[in-house]
Write a structure and sequence with these properties.
Length: 337
């Protein structure tokens, strides 16, 4: 699962404020309780926490309870350019398959709150959105916002209306479904068993009109750098990461790491929580990052799993699918390693 709770730039929060203004909701109401001023959001170097953006969403929902289409109205306003270099990497991709792969690899650079996974089979590809980790009162908003933004990206990439994915939404239809069908396309299904976008597999390999290999290569390089900075750890978390990386393939448990840091495991857990992380999240981050490096360096899947401390190859493959949405060998083929 990608780290949805990392601090983000201000563009998304500012977009939500503007949406509120267009519905006559004062800025003060939208930002109530966030400790954010409008001037803060107009500073491109400002940071907004996930908790603050969640509060903004709650304020909007509370101020506009009758606007059922609020999440898709919000999502349709997110453009590829809103996401900066991540958007350039998407736009220059040769086909949808590559665009989705790039998007998921660097999902933490976006404002997405949902986890996303690709599942392929029976000639179809499903992009599943998972939201169980989100608070129940804002879950629907973030799921529908994310889906609407992806559809908006599809239109920007030049997809004709008939090529847009089928949209599956859990929960019943709104009283007025027109904004949903207008913004999400004609193939919207409510009361579905999953929140997902569904495409025929053949659509994934059709060329995109703005493909540019040079742009993608440069954009991905910057995405990797930004992601490294975002996942960079200092403080106690940085020390724990260091012990985890030096300990592999023998994964030290938290009691061992706590002993090396001369604190109790309980104290270590509390300090990691204070820094917004946990031992298991850090172990996952270390393994995910090293898995890409080892595979790119020519290690086999079996060797990579062993060097990361997995008991067997299937266990590593399962973890890799959770990180990247696909098997290691498929991932390598896609990134050209």
């Amino acid at each position: 699962m990608h780290r949805w709770d990392l601090p983000r730039g201000p563009a998304s929060a500012l977009l939500l404020v503007r949406l509120g203004e267009e519905h006559s909701v004062p800025t003060g109401t939208v930002l109530h309780g966030t400790r954010i001023a409008l001037d803060d959001l107009e500073d491109p170097h400002a940071l907004v926490t996930a908790e603050q953006e969640t509060r903004i969403v709650r304020n909007l929902i509370g101020a506009l309870p009758a606007v059922e289409a609020l999440p898709v109205l919000a999502g349709s306003r997110y453009h590829l350019t809103t996401h900066g270099i991540w958007g350039f990497a998407i736009a220059g991709s040769p086909d949808l398959r590559s665009a989705i792969g790039v998007g998921l690899r660097y999902l933490a650079l976006t404002w997405a709150f949902c986890d996303m996974t690709v599942v392929e089979g029976e000639g179809r590809s499903r992009l599943l959105l998972r939201s169980e980790h989100l608070p129940g009162d804002v879950r629907r908003f973030f799921v529908h916002r994310e889906l609407a933004s992806i559809i908006a990206f599809g239109r920007e990439l030049g997809l004709a209306e008939e090529r847009l994915p089928e949209v599956r939404l859990r929960g019943g239809p709104p009283t007025d479904p027109e904004p949903y069908t207008r913004l999400l396309g004609r193939r919207v299904r409510f009361d579905a068993e999953e929140d997902a976008l569904v495409l025929d597999a053949v659509e994934l390999d059709r060329p995109l009109p703005r493909a540019d290999a040079h742009t993608v290569a440069l954009a991905e390089e910057q995405c990797r750098r930004l992601l490294g900075e975002r996942y960079g750890r200092s403080g106690v978390a940085g020390l724990v990461r260091g012990h985890l990386m030096s300990g592999l393939p023998d994964v030290p448990d938290i009691e061992v790491v706590a002993g090396r840091l001369h604190v109790s495991s309980r104290t270590l857990r509390r300090r990691l929580v204070a820094e917004g992380t946990s031992y298991r999240v850090l172990l996952d981050e270390v393994r995910e990052g090293l898995s890409e490096e080892l595979l790119a360096a020519g290690c086999t899947v079996e060797e990579t799993g062993r060097r990361l401390g997995y008991r067997n190859t299937p266990s590593f493959t399962t973890a890799f699918k959770r990180w990247k949405g696909t098997a290691p060998r498929v991932y390598l083929a896609r990134v050209g390693a």
